[in-house]
Amino acid sequence: MTRRPALAVLAAIGALAAAGCGGSDSGAGSASSSAAELSVEAAYMPQPVSDSMAAGFLTISNEGGKADELTSVTSEAGEVTLHETVDGTMKEADRLEVPAHGQLVFRSGGNHLMFEKLRQQPEQGQSVAVELHFAHSDPVTVELPVKAATYRPADGHSAHSEHTGH
Ligand SMILES: [Cu+2]
């Protein structure tokens, strides 16, 4: 009697390894010259109108030659989830890509950080600290200054209606 579960397991591991890093070039190892190089700018939180919920926006730039992924955001202020807007409807995202030589942009009407179960309602002039966690890069801590509820960065527009569905 022969048993072959070991083979099946090996095949599964092989498939995982192949799918793991998404890159078509080089695989693991000596990639120090092509790692993601992340920086964050334009972070802010419009002063929330709700005492338990708020949105946050920022831009993550990647100067490096390798893509990374934002996998989660944590904050002492409350629970944070990633939301993306697809065809005008927002939905929670497990992770969002930061493309090589590109940007992951959170802005009104598009991707946003969703704060829920806030311990206290942030007010203009305060700031909210968040920690960004990535698939490959080290975590990055960012302060989101709380702006007026009507604050819009240069090309923003009407943000409020999009959160009435929560
Ligand atoms: Cu949302």
What does this structure look like?
Keywords: Signal. This is Copper chaperone PCu(A)C. Pfam families: PCuAC. The chain is globular and about 45 Å long. Helix content is 10%, strand content 40%. Strands 1, 2, 3, 4, 5, 6, 7, 8, 9 and 10 form a ten-stranded mixed sheet that branches. A hairpin with a 5-residue loop joins strand 9 (127-134) and strand 10. The protein has one helix spanning 5-20; strands at residues 38-46, 54-62, 68-74, 79-86, 89-93, 96-98, 102-105, 112-116, 127-134, 140-147. Residues 83, 90, 112, 114, 163 line the site of copper (II) ion (CU).
Bound molecules: copper (II) ion
The gross shape turns out to be globular
Largest sheet: 10 strands, mixed
Strand content: 35-45%
**Which blocks of ≥5 consecutive residues have pLDDT under 50?**
15-32, 156-162
CATH fold label of the domain at 35-150: Immunoglobulin-like
Architecture (CATH level 2) name of the domain at 35-150: Sandwich
CATH superfamily of the domain at 35-150: PCu(A)C copper chaperone
Give me the strand/helix succession: HEEEEEEEEEE
State Rg. 19 Å
Quickly describe the structure:
This protein has 166 residues and is mainly β. The chain is 10% helix and 40% strand. It has one helix at 5-20, and strands at residues 38-46, 54-62, 68-74, 79-86, 89-93, 96-98, 102-105, 112-116, 127-134, 140-147.
Supply the key terms:
166 residues; mainly beta; Immunoglobulin-like; ten-stranded mixed beta sheet; 1 helix; 10 strands; 10% helix; 40% strand; binds copper (II) ion
Reconstruct the topology from this structure.
Layout: H1 5-20, E1 38-46, E2 54-62, E3 68-74, E4 79-86, E5 89-93, E6 96-98, E7 102-105, E8 112-116, E9 127-134, E10 140-147
Parallel strand pairs: 1-10
Antiparallel strand pairs: 1-2, 2-7, 2-8, 3-6, 3-9, 4-5, 4-8, 9-10
Bound molecules: copper (II) ion (CU).
Copper (II) ion (CU) is lined by residues 83, 90, 112, 114, 163.
